[in-house]
## 1
Amino acid sequence: MTSFILAAMAFASITFAQLATYSPQGENGVSYSVNVPDASASSGKGDIFFQITAPSSLQWVGLGQGGAMTGANIFIIYSDASGTNVTLSPRLGKGNFEPDYDSEAQVTLIDGTGIANGKMTANVRCANCVSWTGESMSLTDAKSNWIWAVKEGSPIGSNSQTQDLQQHTNMDSFSFDLTKARGGSTLNPFQASSPASPSSSSSASPPSSTGASGGSGAGAGEGSSGGGSEGGGKSATDKQDLAHGILMAVAFLILFPFGALSVRLFSFPGLVWVHAGIQVFAYILAIAGLGIGVVLATRKSHYQLTQAHPIIGMLVVALLFFQPILGLIHHQLYKKHHARTFWITGHIWFGRAVVVLGAINGGLGLQLADNSMKDEIAYGVVAGVVYVAWFAVVVVGAFRSKASEGETGGKLMGTNRGNGHEKRGSPGESFQ
């Protein structure tokens, strides 16, 4: 009779448990599910359950509560020393570096955990995932922020929860609709699962494959709900991140360098004002990007305004305010004296230094946003090509100017400037 009652309770738990499930696009076999028991959802505290499944060929797999690595409550699994089970390592994200082991985490591996048939599965009960160091999560949030990460490579094979870990190969953010993860008792909602077929938990509760939306660069899994697209939509935070990155990249990798080069590569009436217009437009984009960045950095979920990237960003935009002033002072003096002044030297080198700092800060921003290594490399390559080309033109132009008396930095290919034609548009008024 007792066995019958226990079996009935288990069946009831399986039948009514709801799982919100998310599978990152391009990461075959990686899946994350979460369940919030009715009692926990009603009281706003108590146990929650989550499941991590992934190919056992991966070095480690992680799931975290929060919208970014900083401030996240992170759970990482990897193969244990036997190779037949997993080690669960709870950690706290404190920045863009290896997260620290969290000895305060109350997590337990429950039935169904293990490694079999090329799959590792971790079924986890967490007793204190509603709040952690400086952060918290609502168990009824329809857009609960989470992050995921994977590391390719040889299995770790360690029982240590403080194992040193290499940086992830890929990661992203996404959201769970916890209203669709509610249901069931405090029994194991993954009881129908087994390491041999981890995804079978979805078949135990048909609604379980709903309630997740993907972040930037990752789609939702089978049956997941997204923001208007089949593969999962971007959250508002993701869109802000993208807008901030695009605005700053256009300003510091395209417009500022091109505006600076324009006075060396071209020679036509009104060139000075074209140069000024490009730079002012770039500055407007930088201000807009800064505004979005400040909004992102001051989010309650992961306050980042004290990090290097936002601090340098605010400094760069503030310093650039003085660039048009220096240029205008030089322009007025040039019209009076028809000669280079101290102000143009300051305008040129101050501008170069600040714009280069802004470009470098873009790389710091990618790290702060937990972008993949390939994105950081791509940014570095593009920035490197642009700025090497810029300064190559500057150096070649400087040598040509010294070699040709009267040449004041006109067209790079040898246009003579300073031959009495300055009044056509002041091409002799070199700003670079």
Note: Confidence is low (pLDDT under 50) at residues 1-15, 193-210, 216-233, 405-428.
## 2
Amino acid sequence: MPKALFLMADYGHDPTETAIPYAEFKTAGFDIDFATESGTVPKCDDKMLTGMTQKLLGATKKAVQQYDAMAKDLALKKPLAWTDTNFSLSPYDLVFLPGGHEKGVRQIIDSPIVHKLLLDYFPQTQKPSQKTVAAVCHGVCALAESLLPDGTSVLHDATTTALPHFMEQSIFWATRAFLGDYYKTYGACSDSVETSVRKRLDDPEKQYQNSLGSKPFVVEDAKYNYISARFPPDAEELAKRTIALVQQSIKA
């Protein structure tokens, strides 16, 4: 049974980008753990789960139902602590990094401890390997900001996607009058996710792959067991492709 870990902030992840992969991994028979900074039970972004923001911009009814089911999982009710001195990513076949634009996700994107964990784990995904990393939207930023002593990102030579600049800026400007800078994780004038990720790549024109289309878009790297996606509508396809990659890697 493949072992998967959801590496999360205490609050703010997108419920679709978290619960849809969770449901797919569960159906595939994965053994799933969750980890937050101090073992606090993680909670996804309320605006994407309830009220008018959910109805207009947030999770679908299916995603909300899957989130409610995930919330009942004992593993989520008793998460591990990624600050625990004995905590390690080594036991896991898959490390999954959900996204979310709510400012609470900065807890994981900016954490030196998470950076160290990913710096240790990600190189182990180089093919052939039984270890895999998958990330969506702002989850890619946690990898991009994991820097070696010389300032090189752990993603420097990987092919990836993330939330497109055009999509991020469009929803920010469309909702600014009533949501302020909600859709800008680091504030209104900060770099977009795409800009932040691209500047960490050796050759962003070749390595950063993008799509503004409505069809699911998932990018799988050729060198590493690493797979990435843009935003919530990609979550199901990302999960299915990740399951296939994990299962193939374990059999190899």
Note: The first strand starts at residue 3 and ends at 7.
